[in-house]
Amino acid sequence: MFNSMRNKIITAFIIVTTVPLILLAFFVYEEMETALEMEIREGTSKEMIQMDHAIGTMLNGMKEDCQYLAINPFIEMADTVDTFYNTQQENVPPGNDSVHEKIYRELERYAQQHPETAYAYLGTEKGGFIGWPRRAAQKGLDPRKRPWYRPAIEDQKETFLSEPYETYDGSKFTVTASHFVRNFDGAVIGVLGIDVSLDQFTRKISEMKIGETGYVFMLAKDGTIMAHPNPEFLGHNIAQLASNGVLTPKGSTTSWKFPEYWRLLAGSNTYFETMIEGQRCFVNMQTSGMRNWTLVTVVSADEIAGRAKKVCISLASGTIVLIIMILPFILAFSYQLTRRMDELVRHLNHMACGDFSDRLPDKLLASHDEIGGVAKAIDFMQISRQQAERELQARNKELAATYGQLAATEAELRVQLEQLNIKTQELAQSEERYRLVAAGSKDAIWDWNIKGRTVALLGQWADNFHFSHMFTDCDIFDPRVVNKIHPDDLDKRQQNLEEHLAGKTPEYICEYRIITQEGETLWVLGRGKVLFDADGKPIRMAGSMTDITQKKMQSMKIHHLAYHDILTGLGNRLSFLEKLSAELDAQNGRGAGALLFIDLDNFKMINDSMGYAVGDQFLLRTANALKKVAQEQFVARLGGDEFIIILSGETDRQTISEFAQKLIQVVGEVCISTHDPLAVTLSIGIALYPDDGCDTKSLLKNADIAMQCAKKQGKHRFEFFITDMETDIINKMRLEAGLHRALKNGEFALYYQPIVNADKQLVAFEALIRWQSPDYGLVFPAQFIPVAEESNLIVEIGEWVLQTACLFGKRLHDAGLTNVHMSVNVSVKEWLQDDFADKVASVLEKTAFSKDCLILEIVETILIENFKKVTDKISNLKKQGIRISLDDFGTGYSSLTYLSELPVNTIKIDKSFVDALLEKRNYAAIVGTVIQLAHKMGFDVVAEGVETTEQMSFLQELKCDRMQGYLISRPLAEDKIWKKYC
Questions:
Q1: Is there a contact between 705 and 722 (Cβ–Cβ < 8 Å)?
Q2: In this model, does residue 85 exceed pLDDT 80?
Q3: What pLDDT does residue 595 have?
Q4: Which of 316, 367, 482, 621 has a CA that sits 20 to 30 A from residue 535's CA?
Q5: What percent of the chain stands above pLDDT 70?
Q6: Which ranges in 295-385 belong to alpha helices (H)?
Q7: What is the pLDDT of residues 843-897, one digit of tens each?
Q8: For 761-794, what is each residue's pLDDT tens digit?
Q9: Per-residue CA distances from 896 to 298, 889, 904, 930 (Å)
């Protein structure tokens, strides 16, 4: 092999080239294995995040569906019947008209729309149970003891989602979403649950592709396996599987050799290498943010090594190809060294094989050395053979031409045969494809041979509804076909068909209903296209029928929801606007009528005191009362506690007034329940069209303004719109805007009115707010406080007043007036704030003002109206040392019972009693009695509005503890307080 110089050169070059490439291959293998491991880790992490999102979406959907089903009207009727499925009854389906069956149908409808549902059921507080799918009665089943029941009732803030558990019959492991169910009166009557089995999680995660051999499983936070390719592992704890194994339903023991399983229970995202079933594996885990469930991917280390080996094999192949590509250059180099000898050897070898056509190069023949001589001798021998070779070549050409013609003919025939075979295969595949489509399609495919008078109907859909597959001697209008169609849709379908057969439409499309053999009505979409002959006559028509029932029902439901209020079933704002626009456009814009804007008075009190569920029931009963009075007139709910009634064609004010008064009377009789007969009154604003507006916007605005005026006039009444009302509303809006600006720009100021004891010694100041407005000048509280309360600005203003008064009180204490108290008025909106007591404590801490010197005043009527909600807060503040004063006493309706239960320190007698003290004996008797009674009950008494010395003297005789009024001092600014008392 190495005798040739050329071979030696080639061998040396290959060795020098190959050895470095082999070393490079080993290095690449190591790096590739590391890179593949990192790729698997990052890839599985992304896949698990996406799968966690998908599972979370599925579970959130279950929770939302469960909450939605829990307010289904039929399900809320579960406590209206005497009997129910339970352990004492056989599981016999009730009649179609029973509440039980209606509830079951709702559960069945939901389950059919959500294939992932394993079970859907309802358990009641009485121990009743009904569930989908129907199963034999399960002895001993008490839904109240199941793990999904009690948590749903105890935590009513959101839908409960359980950890995995075994079903009562032991058939599978499930996860449950459950939500409490209330009846129409708001009482909790049971729990509705929706189950998804762990098999569903396994199917979900099986969608993840982890390499060639990798797999995914999911753990609950306690180690219970929720999803795994091995179904025997589902529902078992990984610690038991890895330690002692578990007993399968077949009686055998299964285990999982996973020594480092404990690392999966740490609850953090991690990636590690371990041994599973004796095989080295890479494990990546990701903890879900929703339920602390863990997704785990397992990839065999052999798979990563195998992929790296494939890359190295590819690299080796590339090396070989590279050597092959370089080889010509090596040969060319060696050729330059030995080319003349090689040329002679090659030429002689050719001659030895009988090839005399090649000639030696002229350059070789011209050489004068030994090689040149040998070349000349060889060349002479070739020349002597040339003549004979030319003759043979001429004959060979003639034979070759003949052979070429025969070969061309054979090749052409072969091509034609191959094309024929291809067309035959394509035709067979097309026919098979058509048969498969027809057999597997959910649509019905029909073919109407118009000339042959046959109708063929194919597809599984046709079998389900018992249609014949072939109608002979008929057309598509034949009774055997038409009788399946709903009578109301026959004319529309026939018209669309005739128009298409006449060439008026490019395609036949029609939605219509069919009646199944069982009497069920379904919506179908019919489509088709006709084929015309050369004369323009229809000869054949084919098409399909698609079941669109579910889509149609959803469309109708969406349309209903878009135009109706979900709680009351009345029209909503959108339907109202369309109705009103149609009314205004009626009779070419000359439509007339009345618009009644209805608002419930004090409805917020019901929501705040009794809860939104009771409020919803009250809204529902109010809506029913409105519909009862309105009869055929349009009624809508705009939102919240606002309703609208359109009296079409009615413009007589007397008739409209009688109608509005009847509304107030009927709705006023609506009570929440017989046990708590609380009723809410109405305020109604009335606008006439076209007199009060020719468009929806202005008419609605004017009716709203009239309603606001009705509320301002004392509520429980109605008002017709007049132009002056709009001016009042605009002024109110400007005043509200000014209050916002006043808070921002510091336009408020506090004045302080001194309070003295019976010896005329200063004991306290009452903080009184004033507004120095750049637009209105000095504004007193009676002008702007009502607007502040309606807009909720009173809360922010009250916080400012309390903090400012406490800061001033602290400065007075620091100046030596250590025993002087500071009295601050608090509005009802502030008292009703849940964190009011915390805010007071925060202000006292910030200002360092003594809590023993702070007096909070509450108006008597406000306290009595909100007695239950406010008294707890007052008691809490009083326990902290803060004094409570009952303001304007005598103007409300306090009974002796209320008075004995009031957690106050001080009673302030209203100025109206002090003014009449010396003029009316009964007033003097009342004041004297109040003072005596207050002292016996441990209350201090303050008299307001003392303006004469006679009043003060009389109050001193009655043993009144404290007094304030213009006789003592008008309210003073801070600087005047300093000058007078410090």
A1: no
A2: no
A3: 95
A4: 482
A5: 79
A6: 301-352, 362-365, 370-383
A7: 999 999 999 999 999 886 666 666 677 788 888 899 889 999 988 776 654 545 5
A8: 999 999 999 999 888 888 888 888 888 888 889 9
A9: 77, 13, 14, 11
- Is the backbone of residue 140 left (phi > 0), alpha (psi -120 to 50) or beta? left
- pTM exceeds 0.85: no
Residue 652: what pLDDT?
92
Q: Is the pLDDT of residue 303 over 80?
A: no
For residue 692, give both structure tokens.
Answer: 């009060």
**Which of 148-157, 425-434, 749-758 is least confident?**
425-434
Token duo for residue 773: 């407005």
Alpha-carbon gap, residue 832 to 742, rounded angstroms: 24
Residue 858, H or E segment: strand 854-859
Report which of 154, 319, 285, 298 is spatially closest to residue 215, judged by C-alpha positions: 298
**Residue in the structure block whose two tokens are 């007591």:** 837
Query: Quick one: residue 714, left, alpha or beta (phi over 0 = left, psi -120 to 50 = alpha)?
Result: left
HEC states along 563-626?
Answer: HECCCCCCECHHHHHHHHHHHHHHHHHCCCEEEEEEEECCHHHHHHHHCHHHHHHHHHHHHHHH
**Dist. CA 385–CA 672, nearest whole Å:** 129
Asked if residue 672 has pLDDT above 60, the reply is no
Is pLDDT of 361 > 50?
Answer: yes
Alpha carbon distances (Å) from 552 to 548, 736, 832: 6, 50, 49
Give the DSSP per-residue string, 672-715.
Answer: S-SSS-----EEEEEEEETTT-SSHHHHHHHHHHHHHHHHHTTS
DSSP state of 214: -
Burial class (CB in 10 A: 0-12, 13-18, 19+), 263: middle
Tell me, rounded to whole angstroms, the distance of Cα 488 from its chain centroid: 40
Dihedral sign of CA atoms 535, 537, 539, 540 in order: positive
Cα torsion angle, 806, 811, 812, 818, sign = positive
Look at residues 547, 507, 543, 541 and name the one whose alpha carbon lies nearest to residue 525: 547
Question: What own/partner pairs with CB < 8 Å and gap ≥ 24 does 519-522 have?
Answer: 521/486, 522/547, 522/549
CA 691 from centroid of its chain's CA atoms: 45
Burial class (CB in 10 A: 0-12, 13-18, 19+), 419: exposed
Q: Which one is predicted more confidently, 230 or 749?
A: 749
Q: Which alpha helices (H) appear in 384-446, and where do they start and end?
A: 386-440
Rg (CA), the chain: 48
C-alpha span between 153 and 191 (Å, rounded): 7
pLDDT of 371 above 70: no
Distance CA 422, CA 419 (A): 5
First to last CA, the chain: 125
In degrees and rounded to multiples of 5, residue 561 shows phi and psi of -65, -35
| pLDDT for position 91 | 47
Closest by CA to 292, choosing from 116, 55, 66, is 55
CA 814 to chain centre: 58
- In whole angstroms, give the CA distance from residue 448 to residue 460: 18
Task: Say yes or no to pLDDT of 469 above 60.
Answer: no
Annotate 232-252 with b (16+ C-beta within 10 A) or e (fewer).
bbbbbbbbbbbeeebeeeeee
For residue 652, which amino acid is it?
D
Per the CB < 8 A criterion, the answer to whether 911 and 891 are in contact is no
What length is written for the chain? Answer: 982
Indicate if the pLDDT at residue 90 is higher than 50. no
